[in-house]
């Protein structure tokens, strides 16, 4: 897998896959400014300090829920779908890799015992997921 793999259709980004081998100097944001979820990679030397700060409140309208998954250990296969359940990409991830889902649908299959950390926007509203019919 390349360091960053972008899954797109018709000029829209559906997902981003990130390899554990991805590196940077300082800070590098891996998402576009307009993406509903922002992911950055920071590499800092020992002793580097981030000044105490807060993020100002702001009102944001979410049209979809983005989801970030970090694979801590194990191996998982991620499949990305468009809104009509057409398969756009399939990628295997292992410990240290991570994934950002921005739109469409996705599925996960544990290829071996896996431990993942999932982060998505809140507040939790009963998780109104839309599942693909099994016949497809």
Characterise the protein shown here.
This protein has a domain at about 5-35 and about 65-120: Jelly Rolls. Strands 1, 2, 5, 6, 7 and 8 form a six-stranded antiparallel β-sheet that branches. About 0% of the residues lie in helices and about 45% in strands. With about 140 residues, the protein is an all-beta fold.
Q: What order do the helices and strands come in, and which of them pair?
A:
Elements: E1 4-9, E2 12-18, E3 26-29, E4 40-43, E5 67-81, E6 87-94, E7 98-101, E8 105-120
Antiparallel strand pairs: 1-2, 2-7, 3-4, 5-6, 5-7, 5-8
- State the end-to-end CA separation: 28 Å
Report the β-strand fraction as a percent range: over 45%
Q: Into which percent range does the helicity of residues fall?
A: under 10%
Q: CATH class of the domain at 4-37 and 64-120, anyone?
A: Mainly Beta
Please state the oligomeric state of the protein chains shown: single chain
Using the CA coordinates, give the radius of gyration. Answer: 16 Å
Q: What pattern of helices and strands is seen along the backbone?
A: EEEEEEEE
CATH topology of the domain at 4-37 and 64-120: Jelly Rolls
Poorly predicted runs are none
**What's the count of strands?**
8
Number of helices: 0
Secondary-structure arrangement, i.e. CATH architecture of the domain at 4-37 and 64-120: Sandwich
Q: Structural class of the helix and strand makeup?
A: mainly beta
Please summarize the sheet with the most strands: 6 strands, antiparallel
- On the 0-100 scale, what is the average pLDDT? 89
Shape by Cα distribution: globular
């Amino acid at each position: 897998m390349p360091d960053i793999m972008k899954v797109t259709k018709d000029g829209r980004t559906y997902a981003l896959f990130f390899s554990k081998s991805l590196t940077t100097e300082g800070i590098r944001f891996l998402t576009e400014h307009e993406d509903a979820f922002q992911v950055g990679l920071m590499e800092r030397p020992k002793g580097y300090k981030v000044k105490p700060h807060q993020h100002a409140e702001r009102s944001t309208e979410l049209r979809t829920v983005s989801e970030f998954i970090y694979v801590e250990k194990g191996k998982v296969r991620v499949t990305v779908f468009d809104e009509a359940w057409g398969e756009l990409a399939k990628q295997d991830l292992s410990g240290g890799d991570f994934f950002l889902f921005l739109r469409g649908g996705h599925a996960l299959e544990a290829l071996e015992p896996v431990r993942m950390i999932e982060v998505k926007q809140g507040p939790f509203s009963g998780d109104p997921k839309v599942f693909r019919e099994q016949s497809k």
